[in-house]
Every structure is written in structure tokens, then in C-alpha cells.
Specification:
This protein is α+β, with helices and mostly antiparallel strands. It is built from four helices and twelve strands; from the N terminus they run E-H-H-E-E-E-E-E-E-E-E-E-E-H-E-H. Strand 7 and strand 8 form a beta hairpin. 28% of the residues are buried.
């Protein structure tokens, strides 16, 4: 079972690091197969807005986007995604960002003679999908341009891949794991209300 540490913290006051929590659970008879730290996946990826877009002068399938990421001037980014258009909110990997899931460091580049100062990302490029038909578009009401996109995508989290033994069916849910963590650590537990 995959356990979101952020979700677990909504139910129980976890103060341990993911590694310490995994050790505590292992000592209690659970098997922690993997600790998946998603935080580095989109480190340096910011929320941006495409404010203008035009056809690339030297390529049919590329477009040149002006992207506001909360800096003094919009970034000039060449993009080939078919769903890119003006007035949408997108994840932007700025120069210097390392996208660990695709092993790519963003550098200033010229694509067919036009400078590009970053990359507008798809979910596949951020490690959240195997394939992607285009860039990811956020549906936001009050966006903060230039803010970290990790909380918006659930990438500010650590996932524990946990296996409970056959006799521990009580621990096959988030509430069950939260109860176990509370019992092991002495932390306070918050059981969600059941709504009829």
C-alpha cells in the first residue's frame, strides 16, 4: 500500500523523518519496501502564465511563447506542444532547473534560431505520467505566478510503499496506518468524521 506522508500528517502528528518513520514501522512488523521522495522531481519548476504566443518563424510545429513567471520580464520559451495557447497557467522549468525524472538540466538554448529561456512542462516530464499529449494546464482561481508548483501537483510529498502482514487487515487503510503510527509514537490521532 502506498502511503502519502502529507495525508498521514493530516491524521496523526508525525514528527519523524520519512526514514525514521520507516524504521519505526519496520520494527513494528510492517515491511517498508520503498521511500519515494517526490520533492526533487519538480524542484525549481514555477507556476507561469502564457501571456502571448506566436508561430515560430522557422518551424511549422513550434511556437514562441511569452511566459510570465513573476519576474520583471516574461520569459521567451519555444514550445512544440499542440495545446499551448495564451492565457493559461502552466508549469515552467526555468534555466538552472534539473528535471530528475527525465535527467535534463534546463539551459538557455536556441531552437531553430529563436532563443528559449526555459521549458513549459508536461506531466510526463515531471514524473507524474508515462506519456503526455501536451503541456499541463492548471485550472486555478487565484494563482501566484512564480510560486513553486510542487504543492499544486502533490510533489511536495514523500510516499512510503508499505506492506502489512496478512493478520493486520486493520492496517490496510490510511486510518489504520495512522492509528498504528499514533500507537507507536505516542502522537495524537485525528479520526475523520463519517458523513452520512
Amino acid at each position: 500500500m502506498r502511503i502519502s506522508l502529507n495525508w498521514l500528517r493530516e491524521l496523526v502528528d508525525v514528527t519523524q523523518t520519512p526514514e525514521e518513520l520507516a524504521e519505526t514501522l519496520t520494527m513494528a512488523g510492517f515491511e517498508v519496501e520503498e521511500i519515494e521522495d517526490r520533492r526533487p522531481w519538480a524542484d525549481g519548476v514555477l507556476l507561469g502564465k502564457i501571456v502571448a504566443i506566436e508561430q515560430h518563424p522557422n518551424a511549422d510545429k513550434l511556437r514562441v511563447c511569452q511566459v510570465d513567471v513573476g519576474q520583471a520580464e516574461p520569459l521567451n520559451i519555444v514550445c512544440g506542444a499542440p495545446n499551448a495557447r495564451a492565457d493559461i497557467y502552466v508549469p515552467v522549468a526555468v534555466v538552472g532547473t534539473f528535471l530528475s525524472t527525465i535527467d535534463l538540466k534546463i539551459k538557455p538554448a536556441k531552437l531553430r534560431g529563436v532563443p528559449s529561456e526555459g521549458m513549459i512542462c508536461s506531466l510526463a516530464e515531471l514524473g507524474l505520467s508515462k506519456e503526455s499529449a501536451g503541456i499541463h494546464i492548471f485550472d486555478l482561481e487565484n494563482p501566484q505566478l512564480g510560486s513553486d508548483v510542487r504543492p499544486l501537483l502533490g510533489l511536495d510529498d514523500v510516499i512510503l510503499d508499505l506492506t502489512a502482514t496478512a493478520n493486520r487487515a486493520d492496517a490496510l487503510s490510511m486510518v489504520g496506518v495512522a492509528r498504528e503510527v499514533a500507537a507507536l509514537t505516542g502522537a495524537s490521532l485525528r479520526i475523520p468524521e463519517v458523513v452520512d
